[in-house]
Amino acid sequence: MIIYIVLALLFDRLFGEPKKYHPLVGFGNLANWAEQKFNIKHAHHFKLRILGVFSHLLITLPVAVLIYVTLMFIQNQIALIIIASLILYLCIGWTSLIQHAKNIITPLQNSDIEQARIELGKIVSRDTQELDAKSISKATIESILENGADAVFSAIFWFIAFGFIFSIEAACAMTVFYRMVNTLDAMWGYKTNQFLYFGWFAARLDDVLNFVPARISALSYALMGNYSDAIVYWKQQGNNWKSPNAGPVMAAGAGALNVSLGGGALYHGQWQDRDVLGPKETTVTKATPKKIIDACGLLNRSVYLWVALVLIVDLFGKQF
Description:
By secondary structure, this protein is mainly α. 71% of the residues lie in helices and 3% in strands. The protein has one domain (2-224, 307-317). A two-stranded antiparallel sheet has the order 1-4. Helix 7 packs across helix 11 (246-257) and helix 9 (200-224) packs antiparallel against helix 10 (227-237). The longest helix is centred in the middle third of the chain and has 33 residues, at 133-165. It is globular and about 60 Å long. The two termini are 16 Å apart.
């Protein structure tokens, strides 16, 4: 199992996010087509929920099944290792997440708030036009912590789980399925008039698939940062957040980094009151570009921890 993960992470480090023809971009276009076709305005709430479920499964299950069946026909072990590693690489966003953070840090350090807002808008769903340097730093750190859990650790988790329990073919299919579910949640999982009912299934399924890996991610942040504070804030604040999975992840991450996160924010033109995560804001705990760099370091150390643990499990498993 370790060979697939190491190769995927190496591919990610070497190539980063594909600039053109990324499969998730193509899937996003397919999702837009499905939403335009089946998210019928003024339809009954129940009908919209059914159409949301149908649309979701229509564009996710066939892709996962096709990947599984295709991989079953590959007989050469080396070819299977390379292809499976490439699939996992395309499902994680480690290097791209770090790069997006760096793209925000640079203009912040140069006092170019407008450019920092533009760069932040590429990775968050909240409105960024009026954010100051502190709010931009805070939003960036939150994105690193949450997307690290979603786009890196959850993808690796499902690859490992299905790889150990079933097969590499099943691991690839499940990981791709998970990333499609996560993408649809990012596109449809909003409590707006447009998606409240149609996107209900996308949001709930993403919650289910992220429940376990999110808590392992939170523990990883705690182990690689300020452990005692991370655990305390996780217990105190993790369950009070609007998302059942983002709450533990960001509360633990805030404690691990000793940074104050959360607070109210504007999403799609609507103000949302959000609880504070981590310590209360002081000059020491205030979100800054330096704290963004610390968050990137925490993510990197957590990735290395996962690699080490998988290696130990692989070596341990071979003894039996």
